[in-house]
Write a structure and sequence with these properties.
The structure holds 2 protein chains of 2 kinds. Chain A is globular, with a radius of gyration of 23 Å. Chain A has 13 helices and 15 strands. The relative contact order of chain A is 0.16. Helices cover 31% and strands 23% of the residues of chain A. In chain A, a hairpin with a 2-residue loop joins strand 4 and strand 5. A 7-stranded mixed beta sheet of chain A has the order 1-11-10-9-8-2-3, sandwiched between helices. Chain B is an alpha/beta fold. Chain B contains 6 helices and 15 strands. The chains are: A alpha+beta, B alpha/beta. At the A-B interface, strand 6, strand 7, strand 12, strand 14 and helix 11 of A face loops of B. The structure holds flavin-adenine dinucleotide, iron/sulfur cluster (2 copies) and FE2/S2 (inorganic) cluster. FE2/S2 (inorganic) cluster binds next to loops of chain B.
Chain lengths: 380, 288
């Protein structure tokens, strides 16, 4: 006998969300979702639907983030805040080892994070694409990172397909959204009166079956499709990846780098908000008695002085060098390293840049032939 | 005590794990440069540790931190692990205070070493500058152990001043092998210096090279590579027969921290030894 959940997409009333939160809590998950904090949204523990920023929406522009209450009952009206899903798997500060010393000898003890089941409610398509890139970096190479793995294994990902694009969004041109396509467990589409729900994994399918959800009518499914497509069409920014990586490698001497370097403050905000940036440093903090030392990994940025430092010289002494390193890595060398662009089109670096530097503007300017640009032979 | 065989993890499962090693000997090479002969505390690690010439370790000092350091010892004697460390800054200064009996931490070996299999049957030209010779010392020892499998060996070594000459006895010992030339150059003259005065690349003129059967191993300052490679190419040696060992800031050694990038490469895992034609376009892009 066919049960309702055999169908691909279910339609549920909005009250379903509380039910979902309760079921996840009962299964031992801590549910995190977007919550208003300090004039932006940040991931926080969600117990009630009312913990979510209902009726709020974000407007984002280069160098600007604004939240406004529209009075609507839309639950996922805020597209995203400065945090992607990244910090939930690649922690900004991760103790790696504690090293204990006794009489000249020492022993290093790994400090793996406690495994915790975390359900992420409201992950956007671009962020899931970013997470898939981070999975590739930390889990698919010769050396696998057990700290990342522990946090990542605990995640249950509930995507929300986007039906409204920000002025800074360009996921459509990066093929990462607005519909979630990278790994997720459940995906929701919020319509006027209902949520459409679909599963993206066995765990998600099991959850849907347990909740015995009613199938969505084809009209509802079409309505959702149309809204997602309209969201893609409405994006005012785009990035043409077709000449990459080579064209950006070839632009190494382009005068536009000087232009952007004159605006960039090297604050590193763009790298801190980016869902894919993975640079980190290791910090060593001994206690006062010198018997115990903590070996901790911290997010780093290629905009710091130290990033390119080796004894006796700095490989990237100027802001121009560093911005060029960042953009060239993100949009070009990343492709050679990992087979994908390092940019998923979330637009965060545009919004959170204090001076509003916009990579979708910089790239075309850098690829425009310049009379001053010296040609350099280049190859990957 | 065998602290690292605890149930808390091993190096395969956790590439951040540090193994402790005792300094069994500290050999003064020059002012500010010492070779540390190390022995792993954990017997199992001591038995299983293997490396290839040209690879490096992350060397850790308790409470201070880790730095990337080449392995200079002979890969055929993995239980004697040697690192030659020059004092330049925070971590290396603190390491210099250690004495035999003290412990360092080791994580590694990491990276790609010299292509010593591909070099078999060929003449090998080794070009080094300054402490840059550390990463090739193991390769030289490896070749001399298998002397008949390689053609002629030429070691061209340049230093700033005569008192920067490290491994003096090793150079003398290498000279005694058959079909070997050791040529030294010092930028600055000195009354005791019997060798060439000038830069190392000038030594190319003093050796005969058969371009069809020569492989070049180079390490030292990048400027030496950028000046030296064109001269070698003029002598008919293709870029594809030239290998260089490169240095960049390294935090992790395992391809995760992002600091050691050179264009599409992570020098900690794709290098530090790279075939020159692969890195040439990136070394040309200054500030990248
Ligand atoms: C593959 C490789 C092999 C090396 N082999 C040797 C060797 O055999 N002997 C030796 O004496 N030195 C070697 N070095 C250089 C050595 O790593 C640096 O001298 C050392 O990191 C300086 O650390 P510090 O804290 O004393 O100096 P500081 O100037 O205080 O440096 C601060 C930090 O910057 C980073 N850093 C600085 N210089 C370098 C550098 N050259 N390479 C990588 N990171 C750097 C380190 O994280 C260091 O802790 C090697 C470097 C690399 C990349
Ligand atoms: S580079 Fe900018 S737009 Fe692209 S993924 Fe990173 S933060 Fe988002
Ligand atoms: S591009 Fe903007 S956000 Fe990034 S470092 Fe420069 S000023 Fe900061
Ligand atoms: S040293 Fe960390 S990526 Fe190479």
């Amino acid at each position: 006998m066919a049960t309702p959940c055999d169908t691909h997409v279910a339609a549920v009333p909005k009250t379903f969300l509380q039910q979902l939160i309760d079921v996840l809590c009962a299964k031992g998950y801590r549910v995190v979702g977007p919550a208003l904090r300090d004039g932006a949204v940040m991931w926080d523990t969600i117990r009630q639907v009312s913990d979510l920023p209902i009726g709020w929406r974000d407007e984002q522009e280069p160098g600007r983030y604004r939240l406004e209450n529209t009075g609507s009952d839309q639950i996922f009206g805020v597209v995203h805040g400065p945090q992607s899903v990244k910090p939930l798997a690649f922690a900004p500060r991760e103790p790696l080892l504690v090293i204990e010393r006794t009489k000249g000898s020492f022993s290093a003890l790994p400090t793996l994070p406690k495994s915790e089941k975390v359900a992420v409610l409201g992950a956007r398509a671009c962020d899931l694409a970013g997470l898939a890139i981070q999975d590739h970096i930390f889990l698919k190479d010769a050396y696998r990172d057990p700290y990342y793995q522990t946090r990542r294994d605990g995640l249950f990902l509930i995507a929300v397909n986007c039906t409204r694009a920000l002025a800074t969004c360009f996921c459509a041109s990066m093929d990462t959204g607005p519909r979630a396509s990278a790994a997720f467990d459940l995906a929701l589409t919020e319509l006027e009166e209902v949520f459409l729900v679909e599963a993206g994994s066995a765990a998600g399918q099991a959850m849907m079956s347990a909740l015995s959800l009613a199938p969505a009518s084809t009209a509802r499914v079409r309505e959702a499709e149309q809204q997602i497509e309209a969201c893609a069409r409405s994006q005012v920014r785009r990035l043409d990846r077709s000449p990459l990586p080579q064209a950006l490698y070839d632009a190494h001497e382009h005068p536009r780098w000087d232009d952007v370097a004159a605006r960039c403050l090297a604050c590193g905000n763009c790298t801190m908000v980016c869902p894919t940036c993975f640079c980190h440093v290791v910090e060593e903090v001994p206690d006062l008695t010198q018997t115990r030392s903590e070996h901790t990994r911290l997010w780093d940025s290629c905009f710091t002085q130290e990033h390119g430092y080796i004894h006796g010289k700095n490989i990237r002494p100027t802001i121009k060098d560093r911005y060029r390193m960042w953009l060239t890595h993100k949009l070009a060398s990343w492709i050679d390293q990992f087979g994908t662009s390092g940019c998923v089109g979330c637009g965060r670096c545009i919004t959170w840049c204090p001076v509003g530097i916009d990579l979708t503007e910089e790239l075309p300017a850098l690829l425009k032939p310049s009379s001053q640009a010296k040609e350099k032979p280049g190859q990957a | 005590m065998t602290p690292f065989s605890q149930a808390t993890g091993n190096a395969a499962a956790n590439p951040y794990l540090i193994q402790s090693a005792t300094i069994v000997e500290k050999i003064r090479e020059a002012e500010d440069i010492d070779t540390y002969r190390l022995r792993f505390v954990d017997e199992q690690v001591r038995r299983s540790y293997r490396f290839a010439a040209g690879q490096f370790n992350m060397v850790y000092l308790f409470g201070v931190g880790e730095v990337a350091i080449s392995i200079v010892s002979d890969p055929d004697e993995p239980d004697s692990l040697d690192h030659t460390i020059r004092v330049v800054g925070r971590v290396t200064k603190a390491i210099a205070r250690l004495q035999p009996g003290d412990e360092l931490g080791i994580r590694g070996p990491f990276g790609q070493g010299w292509p010593l299999d591909a070099a078999q049957g060929k003449d090998v030209v080794i070009v080094t500058g300054g402490l840059g010779c550390a990463p090739v010392v193991g390769a030289i020892e490896y070749i001399f152990r298998r002397r008949s499998q390689y053609g002629s060996v030429k070691i061209l070594h340049g230093i700033k001043t005569p008192h920067d000459l490290l491994y003096r006895e090793r150079f003398d010992a290498w000279r005694r092998h058959p079909d070997v030339e050791v040529l030294l150059a010092s930028d600055q003259p000195h009354k005791t210096w019997r060798y060439h005065v000038g830069v190392v690349t000038e030594l190319f003129e003093q050796v005969v090279m058969n371009p069809a059967r020569t492989m070049v191993l180079m390490c030292g300052p990048e400027i030496m590579m950028r000046l030296g490679v064109p001269i070698l190419m003029q002598r008919g040696i293709p870029e594809t027969a030239i290998y260089v060992s490169l240095e960049r800031h390294m935090e992790c050694g395992i391809g995760l921290c992002g600091h050691c990038q050179l264009g599409p490469y992570f020098l900690c895992k794709d290098g530090p030894v790279m075939r020159y034609d692969r890195v040439a376009p990136w070394l040309e892009r200054v500030g990248f």
